[in-house]
Amino acid sequence: MTAADGTGTEPPHADRDQDRARRAVEAVWRIESPRLIAGLARLVHDIGIAEELAQDALVAALEQWPRDGVPRNPGAWLMTTAKRRGIDLIRRNETFARKLQELGHELEVTQGAAVFGEPADAAGDGGDIEDDLLRLVFVACHPVLSREARLALTLRLLGGLTTDEVARAFLVAEPTVAQRIVRAKRTLAKEKVPFEVPQGAELAVRLASVLEVVYLIFNEGYSATAGDDWMRPGLCEDALRLARVLQGLMPAEPEVHGLAALLEVQASRSAARTRDGAPVTLLDQDRRRWDQLLIHRGFAALARADTAARARGAAPGPYALQAAIAACHAQAVRAEDTDWPRIAGLYRALAATAPSPVVELNRAVAVGMAEGPAAGLVLADALAAGGALEGYHLLPSVRGDLLARLGRTAEAREEFVRAAGLTRNGAERALLLRRAADPGGS
After folding, report:
1. pLDDT tens string 2-28
2. What is the pTM for the complete model shown?
3. Which residue range or ranges hold the RNA polymerase sigma factor 70 region 4 type domain (predicted)?
């Protein structure tokens, strides 16, 4: 029945149009929110206020787009609307009088065409929007924040995730994530963290924090630390997107390309990492299912990392070395074709560049494959004796594999059981218990 029938109800297609408009709002928000918040933060110098203004624009879009249609330049529409809200806020606070003039001038430039007419530069900033994004990256990943806060804030501001989505991604209660984000914004304001890209020696320190955050987001998606799922692909996709954005923003930084290369090649294996919902180890994966497009992208990024490093006369950094290791696996058509001596050498270089017990554990695996399980077990046993990896489930897992290959099945079984008791991931626990039941793999 339609309104013409005297019922006063809307035709079915109106509901469909509204649903489409709402979905469009959600899609545009996920894509545009980082640029929107970045542009606003540069003007108001407060991430909390910038996000509130952006949210106000989102609410306006949810109200108007289903009724009026989606504008031709949604990002510019959102920015224009947010700036209007900003002007209203500034007018209520005399201390922001100077910023009112700045906002008013920019609004005059973008108003009109940006709303439903010809597309305008989002925020009228032209090329500055990329600089705004880069500033936002460095603020969200500032070392003054805890690691957990950096992860949550980065996914919130740059990944476009809701607080609930961040909470579900890391299996944390939503109020906990909300508190982390609120505290992070307060800390940035209290510490007066400038909305700028650091320069000189500080850039290297801060960039390391940025890359670490993206790396941790990817790792949590690639091998979930807790829960029942072996992977959380959404987090991998978010990290990949952030890594690619960083490549565009910082094309001269070798480690930016190194990280992107590592994530591209690692992500290429995603489809082969499970079978019927159960984890599949690297050596047992069907390599025909590896995504060749992502592998090629990874190789291209690795080449860019090498070129950028050579331009600086620098040796490969930790992410580039890890990407080179991943590339070795990607180049092997069959698991038995893997160049393990080269991988062991790359891990040796990585241990010299970024020493850590986890790197040494991975080197033990590579040495065990290149020189035999006895040689790998010597390294793994040294790590166990040192105690640095106590409670880390992959140490007994690696020792179990090496012992099994040496025919010491009883000891291997004990190690796999120990590893299963340490992991918090249900799928990984099941895999380890299966290995414990049949250490020899018969």
Report:
1. 444 444 444 555 667 677 777 877 778
2. 0.77
3. 139-188
